[in-house]
Amino acid sequence: MRIVSGIQPTGNLHLGNYLGAIRNWVRMQDELAEGSEALFFLADLHAISMPHDPEALRRGTLEMAAALVACGIDPARSVLFNQAQVPQHAELQWLLNGTARMGWLNRMTQWKDKAGKNREGASVALFAYPVLQAADVLLYQTTHVPVGEDQKQHLELARDIAQKFNNDFAPKDENGEEAPVFTLPEPYIPPVAARIMSLRDGTAKMSKSDPSDMSRINLTDDPDEVMKKVKKAKTDPEPLPSEREGLDGRAEALNLVTIYAALADEPVDAVLATHGGQGFGAFKPALGELLVETLRPISSRFAELMQDREALDAILARGAAKARERAVPTLDAAYTALGLVRG
Ligand code: TRP
Fold it and tell me: In this structure, are 30 and 132 located in the same domain?
C-alpha cells in the first residue's frame, strides 16, 4: 500500500483542522503495515491558483508543517514535504496536460464553485488544479488516496487521466502486453472525520476566517484561553440528554458533545450515557480539561518547532529528498512513453 495525501497550507490551525484531516493522517500512518508507506505534503503549488499573499503562503506552509509534526506525523516514518521542493509534481502536471481533456475539467464542481460567474477572470491554475492533483498522486504509483466527499471527483479524474495515458502511451513488452506507466489509485475512506462547528454558532463550520476568535480553539491557545472559550461557548439552558435524539435541533449542544466524543475517542452515545442529565455548568469544565490535556503536548511541540526554523527546514528538506527519489522513475517513464528526448 502506498498512501498519498495533500493539504492546503493555511495558517492558524484550529481544532477543526486537527479533528478533521490531521488526526486521520496520524492514524493512517500509525496503522500502516510493514512495507507500506505514506507520503503527506503541503499543497503550496495548489495555493497559488487563487489570489494569495506570498508572505502568508510562506508562513502558512511552515506553520502547517510544524503543526503536522506536532500532531504526530513522524518525518522518520512518513514522507513529509511541500510540493514546491519537488519539481517533479509540476513537470508531471505538464505532461498530463496533454492527456487531460477540457471537457473533463469543465465538469469539476470545485472549478465551477470557485470560478463562479467570473470564469474569464479565473486563473489557468484554478482550471488545471485537478491535473496537478492527479500528478501529485500518479507520480508515486499511489495505491490509496484518503479523500473526503469534496475531493472524490478529483480522484476520479486522476484515474481517468491515468487510464487514458496508459491506453494511449504505455509501452508494450515483448509479448505485446501493455506495461502501464501509472497505477490507478483507489479512494481510501478514512475513519469518520469529525465535523467541528463554531463555538458561537453550531450551524457554521469552525473556521480560521471567522472574525470572532471566540468561535474557535486554536492549536496555539494556552490553557486559560481554551477554558475561557469553552465556558463562553454558546449553549442552551437544557441539561444534556442521555440519548442522541435529545440533541436534535440543539446544534451547539451537539457540537460540544461531538468535540468531547472525538477527543475521548468514544461514540457520541457513550458520552451521553455518562454525561446525560448534566448541565453545561458541569459538562463544560470536563470538556475544557480534556481539550487542555489533548492540546498541551501539541502546542508545546508546535511552539518549539516554530522557534527552530533550522530544524523545520531540515525536516522539509529531508522529506523532499525522499519524495524526489520516489518520483523520478515514474516521471522518467512518462517522458519516455511520450517520445520526449532527454540527454
Ligand atoms: N485538493 C486537496 C484539498 O483541497 C488537496 C490536495 C492536493 C490533495 N493534492 C492532493 C489531496 C492529492 C489528496 C491527494 O483538500
Answer: yes
In 10 A of CB 324, how many CB atoms? 16
Q: For residues 57 and 83, is the Cβ–Cβ distance under 8 A?
A: no
- Asked if residue 200 is part of any domain, the answer here is no
Assign residue 264 the CATH number of its domain. 1.10.240.10
Ligand 1 close to Cβ of residue 137 (< 6 A): yes
**Residue-wise pLDDT tens digits, 285-324:** 999 999 999 999 999 999 999 999 999 999 999 999 999 9
Average pLDDT, the chain: 95
Domain membership of residue 202 (yes or no) is no
The total domain count for the chain is 2
pLDDT in tens, 201-252: 999 999 998 999 999 999 999 999 999 999 999 999 999 999 999 999 999 9
pTM of the model: 0.93
Domain that holds residue 321: 2-194+309-338
Residues with a known catalytic role: 114, 205, 208
Query: Which grid coordinates belong to 289?
Result: 480539561
- What is the C-alpha separation between 292 and 297, in angstroms, rounded? 9
Cell readout for 308 is 527552530
Q: Cβ distance 20 to 30 under 8 Å?
A: no
150 assigned to some structural domain: yes
Contact in structure between 157 and 130 (CB atoms under 8 Å): yes
Say what the pLDDT of residue 11 is: 80
Query: Which of 7, 82, 110 is the pocket-test mutation for ligand 1 (most atoms within 8 Å of CB)?
Result: 7
